[in-house]
Amino acid sequence: MWKGLKPGSHLPFGAAYPYKLDMVETEEFGNMLFLDGMVMTSQKDEFVYHEMVAHPVLNTHPNPENVLVVGGGDGGVIREIMKHEKVKKATLVDIDGKVIEYSKKYLPEIAGELDNPRVEVKVDDGFMHIVKSKNLYDVIMVDSTEPVGPAAPLFERGFYQGIYEALKEDGMFVAQTDNPWFKADLIRKVNKDIKEIFPVAKAYYANIPTYPSGMWIFQIGSKKYDPEAVDVNSIPERETKYYTPRLHHASFILPKFVEDLVK
């Protein structure tokens, strides 16, 4: 139940794509960030998404020193990355500075690590940043909105090919790829594209109540390392609320209808 709006305004987003940013205070989920009426994050359940973007891939790559986050202006993925002492630098590239600004103000527990000295924040086009980066990153995380407007190119094969080239020879990437109930064709297409580019391609899922259907799919592309081959005993316990070493492997066990999408 809405208790009222905090600032909401039409802001520029990409080339000729106006959108509406709302920060809404709710009784059940706390402050919620919306873009064009779509839930991006909420104080109550944000930890699920952000932990599941960051930890599976960072616990698979043995030395993720240089990490890139495309999107993710709320800072949640960066917060989780900072829990990994092997990460020497994390670069966040988000096209929208207002998301960063509003998150710092209204979602401080999510955005609190954006000022960490190991973090560089750039307000820029993530797609073009990938194009200009070659053999640079150990891990790339794509924390994008849904595939509409300026985020649409982040779900195309050319973008994944660019990620491959931006990664080092043993690099990995992860991207959120929406939900299997309403976006089955998207998941099938993205999985096919990733498999054609990367030697290792794996999908996993998590439960996020404020996202459509509650079931959310993530996909990994890796040049060398298999997330399902990780020794659970090698994963250190960290301060998390959803992800655990045991859940690492369990999240790759997909329901049959999702498994069929990514075969």
From TrEMBL:
Active site: 143
Cellular component GO terms held in the UniProt record: cytosol
Catalytic activity: S-adenosyl 3-(methylsulfanyl)propylamine + putrescine = S-methyl-5'-thioadenosine + spermidine + H(+)
Pfam family, one: Spermine_synt_N
Gene Ontology molecular function, alphabetical: spermidine synthase activity
GO biological process terms on file: spermidine biosynthetic process
Binding-site positions, S-methyl-5'-thioadenosine: 94, 125-126, 150
Keyword Transferase among record annotations: yes
Superkingdom, natural source: Bacteria
Keywords, alphabetical: Cytoplasm, Polyamine biosynthesis, Spermidine biosynthesis, Transferase
Domain PABS positions: 1-223
Residues holding spermidine: 50, 74, 143-146
Database matches in SUPFAM superfamilies: S-adenosyl-L-methionine-dependent methyltransferases
This protein's pathway: Amine and polyamine biosynthesis; spermidine biosynthesis; spermidine from putrescine: step 1/1
EC code: 2.5.1.16
Subunit description: Homodimer or homotetramer.
Physiological role: Catalyzes the irreversible transfer of a propylamine group from the amino donor S-adenosylmethioninamine (decarboxy-AdoMet) to putrescine (1,4-diaminobutane) to yield spermidine.
Family from the record: Belongs to the spermidine/spermine synthase family.
Descriptive protein name: Polyamine aminopropyltransferase
Source species of the chain: Aneurinibacillus migulanus (Bacillus migulanus)
Gene: speE
